[in-house]
Design goal:
Length: 598
C-alpha cells in the first residue's frame, strides 16, 4: 500500500500453483527470517471476524469454505453458525498441528439449543475432527478454542466444515518407490466410496480403492503437510484425495522396497500367525482392545536383519511394542519358544534440546542363531485398554545396511557460555562467519567418518566443509562471507559422503562403496522454554542471506584440517581483522571435540 502497514504483506497466488504447504520468509535489512508455513488450498477461503465468542454473536459459516482463524487472546472462544439439512454428513476439521501454530485445538459441534452433538481435541499432532449426521433441518454451531484456553497471534488455525472428504487411514501405509500401487482409503464422504465393516467411535467408515503413483525418491520434505523432528530420515510421501468438494486431509505413505503384506485376521495367537518373508514388508492395525498381531518368518543361521516398526514416525497414533521369539521343537515334537527380545521405544536422541528424535517405534537387530522359524508379536503399548482401526503400523524386515542421514539446522548465534535455542535463519554480514549445526542419524551400526560440504553458495561466500569423526553425532559447518560479497538471499544445499563397508553372504566377504546423502533441512519452530526443549520440524529448504553491512571484526585462520596422534599438541594461528572503529577485546572459545583435551 502507499502507506505500509507494519507486518502486513500482500501475497499473490497464481492459478497454476499446486495446492500444498509452502514455506514463507520475510526479507529485509537483516536477511531472511526463519520460515513459516503458508497453505495453498483447493477451496474458497474467508477470515474469522471478532467478536464471535458466544452463540448470540457467531460468525456465519459457509459449508465447504475454509475459515482462517486465531485464538487471539487467553480464554478466546470462536463460534461459527451454519444452516444444515437433515441427513447431511458434516465433517469439521480444525487444522493447526502442521501449520507452525502453537494452538492445540478443541472442536465442539452444537445444536441450535446449545446441546453438544460431538467433541474432539488435538492429540499428538493429530488435528481434531468431528463427524455428525444432522438429525434435522436447522441451525447448528461449531465452537473452536485452545485446549488450555491460551491465546495470541501465533495460535492460528484453519477450520473446514461441510460434506468434505476425510481420510482416517490408508492401507497399506507404504508402497514401492517408483510404481503405481493399489491402496484402500478408509474415511468419510469419499466419492464413490462403499460402506466398510470398520467402525470408529460409533461411526461407520467408507472405503475406496485407489491407485497412487509414488515417486522413485521421496522429497526431503512432503508437499502436503509438515513433519516433526521425530520423522527425520523416514522421508514419506504426502498425498491427498482430490474431489469436486475439495481435497481431503493429507495422509503419509512410506516408500518401501517391496509391497507390504497386510495382516490377515484373526492372527491373535501363535497358531494363527500371518506368514511373511524375510526380507520383506508387512502392515497391520491394532483394531480392538486386546489385539495381538503375530507374524512368522524363516531365517537361515547367521542371517542378520533389522526389524523396524513405523507408526509414530509416519503419523499413526499407535505405540507399538515388539517381541521376537525363536520357535523350535523338543525331542517329542512339541513346540518350544525362546524369547530373543522385547523392545518398546527408540530412545536414541541426537540433540535433545533442539531436534528431538525419540519415537515410540521399536527397532531390533536380529541375528538368527540357527536355521528355523521365528515369530514376531506386535501389540499397542496400551493394548489392554484401547484399540482403534486407525492405530496402523508398517514393519520392515531388511538386511543390515550401514548408512547415515544428515540434518542441517540453523541455530541462534552462541554468545560465550550462553547457548540459546531459538528460532533463527542463516545470515552473514560481509567479512563475517556463521555456523549451522549438522546432526548425524547413524543407521545399522554405521560409525565411520563423514565429509560434509555445501553447494550453490552465492558469490563471495565460502564454506570449507567439515569432517565428522567416527561415532560423532553432531558437527558444525561454517560459512564465511568476504568483504565484497553481494548482499542477497539464496537457497543452498548441504551434502555428506562416507565410505561404507558392507558384508557379503560369503564368509569374510566385504565390499566398500561410497554413499552420498543430501542433508535434510530443518528449522526451530518455537524457541526452548524453561524445562522444555525447542519445537523443531523438517524444513523444505535452507536459505543463506548476506546482509548489506560489514562485521566489526573477523577471526580467521589458514588451518583447514589437522591430522595428529593422541596427546600431540596443536598450534593454531589466528588473526583478527578489525573494522568500522572496533577496538575492543575479542574473547575466543573452542567449540566441539572433547572438552577435557582442548
Amino acid at each position: 500500500q502507499k502507506k505500509p502497514v507494519p507486518n502486513v504483506f500482500s501475497i499473490t497466488v497464481r492459478p497454476d500453483v499446486p495446492t500444498g504447504v509452502y514455506e514463507l520468509a520475510a526479507g529485509g535489512l537483516y536477511g531472511l527470517s526463519n520460515p513459516r508455513i503458508f497453505v495453498v488450498g483447493s477451496q474458497d477461503e474467508t477470515q474469522e471476524a471478532e467478536p464471535n465468542n458466544t452463540l448470540e454473536k457467531p460468525n456465519d459459516l459457509v459449508l465447504g469454505r475454509i475459515v482462517n482463524g486465531t485464538s487471539g487472546t487467553a480464554t478466546d472462544v470462536d463460534v461459527y453458525r451454519f444452516e444444515g439439512k437433515r441427513g447431511q454428513r458434516i465433517v469439521a476439521v480444525c487444522r493447526a498441528a502442521d501449520l507452525d501454530s502453537r494452538m492445540s485445538p478443541v472442536v465442539e459441534f452444537l445444536s441450535a439449543d446449545g446441546r453438544r452433538l460431538a467433541y474432539a481435541r488435538e492429540e499428538l499432532r493429530h488435528d481434531p475432527m468431528v463427524d455428525v449426521t444432522l438429525p434435522a433441518d436447522g441451525t447448528y454451531f461449531i465452537k473452536v478454542h485452545d485446549f488450555l484456553f491460551r491465546g495470541g497471534p501465533e495460535f492460528v488455525y484453519r477450520l473446514s466444515a461441510g460434506v468434505l472428504p476425510y481420510i482416517d487411514y490408508v492401507m497399506p501405509p507404504a508402497g514401492v518407490a517408483g510404481t503405481t500401487g493399489h491402496f484402500t482409503l478408509f474415511g468419510r464422504n469419499l466419492p464413490d466410496g462403499k460402506a466398510s465393516d470398520v467402525t470408529v467411535e460409533g461411526r461407520r467408515l467408507e472405503k475406496l480403492d485407489v491407485a497412487i503413483s509414488l515417486p522413485g525418491v521421496a522429497p526431503l520434505a512432503p508437499t502436503k503437510t509438515t513433519l516433526g523432528s521425530v520423522s527425520a530420515g523416514t522421508q514419506p510421501v504426502s498425498w491427498t484425495l482430490k474431489t469436486p468438494a475439495g481435497e481431503s486431509n493429507p495422509v503419509l505413505i512410506q516408500l518401501a522396497p517391496s509391497v507390504p503384506i497386510i495382516e490377515k485376521e484373526p492372527n491373535d495367537t501363535p497358531a494363527l500367525a500371518t506368514p511373511v518373508t524375510a526380507p520383506g514388508e508387512f502392515a497391520g492395525r491394532f483394531q480392538s482392545p486386546g489385539d495381538s498381531d503375530y507374524y512368522s518368518f524363516h531365517a537361515d543361521a547367521g542371517q542378520v536383519f533389522y526389524i523396524d516398526v513405523f507408526a509414530d514416525r509416519i503419523g499413526s497414533l499407535a505405540d507399538p511394542y515388539l517381541v521376537v521369539e525363536q520357535v523350535g521343537r523338543d525331542a517329542k515334537g512339541a513346540e518350544t519358544i525362546t524369547r530373543m527380545t522385547s523392545v518398546d521405544d527408540e530412545n536414541g536422541n541426537v540433540a535433545p534440546a533442539i531436534f528431538d528424535t525419540r519415537s515410540d517405534d521399536p527397532s531390533y537387530r536380529f541375528q538368527a542363531p540357527e536355521t528355523g522359524t521365528y515369530r514376531i508379536l506386535l501389540r499397542d503399548r496400551s493394548f489392554e485398554s484401547r484399540g482403534d482401526p486407525r492405530l496402523t503400523y508398517h514393519v520392515s524386515i531388511r538386511p543390515e545396511e550401514p548408512d547415515f542421514r544428515l540434518v542441517v539446522l540453523p541455530q541462534y548465534p552462541k554468545q560465550g557460555s550462553i547457548k540459546e535455542v531459538s528460532t533463527w535463519n542463516l545470515g552473514l554480514r560481509r567479512g563475517d562467519s556463521r555456523d549451522v549445526s549438522i546432526l548425524v542419524l547413524r543407521r545399522d551400526g554405521f560409525r565411520d567418518p563423514i565429509e560434509v560440504w555445501a553447494e550453490g553458495l552465492p558469490r563471495g561466500v565460502t564454506c570449507r566443509g567439515a569432517a565428522i569423526t567416527p561415532y560423532a553425532k553432531t558437527a558444525e559447518l561454517i560459512f564465511t562471507a568476504d568483504e565484497k560479497a553481494a548482499a542477497g538471499d539464496k537457497l543452498i544445499r548441504v551434502f555428506g559422503k562416507a565410505r561404507v563397508t558392507k558384508k557379503g553372504r560369503a564368509k569374510d566377504a566385504k565390499t566398500e562403496t561410497e554413499i552420498v546423502r543430501e542433508a535434510i533441512p530443518a528449522t526451530i519452530v518455537w524457541s526452548a522454554e524453561a524445562d522444555a526443549p525447542a519445537m523443531s520440524r523438517i524444513a523444505q529448504s535452507l536459505a543463506l542471506s548476506v546482509m548489506n553491512e560489514a562485521a566489526p571484526f573477523e577471526l580467521s585462520t589458514n588451518v583447514v584440517r589437522v591430522e595428529v596422534n593422541q596427546s600431540r599438541q596443536i598450534l593454531l594461528p589466528l588473526s583478527v581483522t578489525r573494522r568500522i572503529g572496533f577496538d575492543g577485546d575479542v574473547t575466543m572459545a573452542l567449540v566441539g571435540g572433547n572438552p577435557d583435551t582442548l
